[in-house]
Amino acid sequence: MSRPTPPTLPPYLNLDPEAAAKRLPDPIGTSRFAKAAAFCAKGREDLAQRGYAPDGEKRLRKFSTWEITKYLIPIAPAHLRRVLKANPDLPQGEGEGGSKWFTLEEVLALRQYFASEGVSTKEYLPYRPKGLPAKVVAVANFKGGVGKTSTAAHLAMSAALDGYKVLVIDLDSQGSMTSILGGKVADEWQTVFPLMAKDYAKAVVAENEVRVAAEQPEIPLDETLQEALKTSPQDVIQNTHWPNIDLIGAQLNLYWAEFQIPVWRMGLRSWPLWDGLTNFLQDEGILDQYDVVFLDTPPALGYLTINALAASDILLVPLGASFLEFDSTGRFFDMLYTTFASIEDGENTAQRAAGLPEIKFEWDVVRAIVTRFDASQQTDMANVIQAYFGDFMNAYRQDYTALVGQAGEQVNGIYEADYRDFNRDTYVRGRETFDRTYAEFKELLIGCWWRDAHMGDEQDG
């Protein structure tokens, strides 16, 4: 008869303090952080190369006839082949027979052709009213890991595939969006930092003109501010491997803006620190050069995020279907109210005293988006979130699919992944997840534009 096996103790009982002490390393100084950072930088570079060409540059893959006719241009494959045969001056793609592959530049050229020559009832080009500025979209939440950057990146790529011209501004010093889009940022002077500095410097110049007239001492303009005044959009906007997505990237030094902005504000209390990004987009003609501007924000309600929110027309707030993320997002909305209401109250006291119009922050629309959704485990919680957020909530919940993880390993977006690397059904399901998210976003986008375009008509009526 065998003896009973004694019960196994939990792994945290009967630990030996002396043995534990022997496993510890020597005390760690600050220099060890530098070594760890260097290892991570090397690893990050090596991993990033997985999504790059052998020369270290990112390349956007080509798109097949199947993809173009299924997802991009509403025409039948046979009709596309007939049109290409009849118009040899159009991009012909690569490959033989019915299986041809086209660059996105070629797809955009085909879009333009069908928009001018095709059936008028079909949408070959996306809705974009003439004479109206680009819409600015901030993707924000101060809880990390909610799919913020992934959501912003895929919406930008979706809009680009749909035919829009897109600018992406990375405001997160971690630079994840910059990596996805293959951006190269040497220092803070290739980020939004000089744009914020330029806005402050312009305010100082205007203030000094008043002070000189009143024979008061001027506010000094240091070398950084003098250099910032020379900054132009061309200095910070870079092309990406997507022909219709441009980027203002980010890197670690951008974080210094969070410390510098309040210092500038103390130097000139009348400078509206929340308007720096807004003024850049408006004054430098950016809103006339693009259709949609996406702002990827840090996971914190700091000064850069405040600038992004103040500049945006549409605010998207990603969150997972869990209690903690729901709770955190509720606190995020509470902080948004506290922050912007306090700015309004403080500024409008002075505005009223000076007989000037009051300022008021407004957004065309705000939507929370459930990301990384698992219907088998999270449906009840998602329904609760939906009930409490009401009209702040997107109807569609963005599923987590195998395609998301596999594409992420290659430092690529879903739309950059070649469907031949996946099971066809897996690709179609994974792509549908982001297509449906984009469809709901696009409905918001074009609705906002339509309302803007017809607002004058309604007021006249």
TrEMBL record:
Pfam families in the cross-refs: AAA_31
Coiled-coil segments on the chain, per record: none
Native organism: Parasedimentitalea huanghaiensis
InterPro entries membership: AAA_dom (IPR025669), DNA_Partitioning_ATPase (IPR050678), P-loop_NTPase (IPR027417)
Protein name: AAA family ATPase
AAA domain ranges (all copies): 134-324
SUPFAM superfamilies membership: P-loop containing nucleoside triphosphate hydrolases
